[in-house]
Amino acid sequence: MNEFDLIQHFFLKQKIKRQDVTLGIGDDAALLSLKKGQSLVITTDTMVEGVHFKPHTHPAHLGHKILAVNLSDLAAMGATPAWVTLALTLPEANPAWLEAFGSGFFSLAEQFQVELIGGDLTRGPLSMTVGAYGLVPPGLALRRDTAKPLDKIFVSNTLGDAAFGLTSANPFFLKKLETPIPEITLGESLRNTAHACIDVSDGLIADLSHILAKSGVGATIFTHKIPLSEELKKHTDYEKALTLALSGGDDYVLCFTVPPKNAHKISSKCTEIGFITENPEFRILNEDSSTYSPITAGYQHF
Ligand SMILES: [Mg+2]
To answer: What's this model's pTM, rounded to 2 decimal places?
Structure first.
């Protein structure tokens, strides 16, 4: 198959057809009709073989994950996902690989009613880039620079499971690592409730630090409040589990800050782990009030 056939075969298989897409794949560019009174939220993320995923990762999981990490960024903004673009670089035109990649990609796209509106296919070392576009009412997007002193800090799920999946063949951890589910519904529900929000991709310490730096505040969090899965506690000792939870990446849970008056509105599936302080210090305390010293702070891109 040539590039054109591959694109035809692959990209035109999606079932989602949104009303707001005037012109989708097949022209020089896509045309979208935007409603008044909505802000457009835009993000993009790349995954490169050997950097972001191991060689021979199942293509269906790659298709899922490259979409999931982008939708997770929209979730962290409180946005409702609408459209995506996909640029794929492949060492060879392998129809079976593309078929599997597409099954992972499109089943997640269907789950969130996201339409693929453009794409590109190139030959080269395996890498994939998605651009994701979402919508949010003006003024209600969740940002990193809006945390306030006394806000309570929450995380939306257990931490450290995905990082443990990097060195484990256990299906529970591999699922967390390779097919995370973006917290879209939660992000939308936080629009009127939370002050600041980020998705945890590089590790809790690293990502919460971004909120603190952007907001000009500090935080105190407690190690004994960090949610750990029963599976993680069963498969490793507490110290290692805590290190993975605080400094491991790829969890794609939301970390957000909430003014005390709104704390009762937060779903019981989320866990309160500490609070924002006016003092710009980031303190991590153990249950006995001693200071916890992390072994590593988180994933560094460079
Ligand atoms: Mg992010």
So the answer is: 0.95
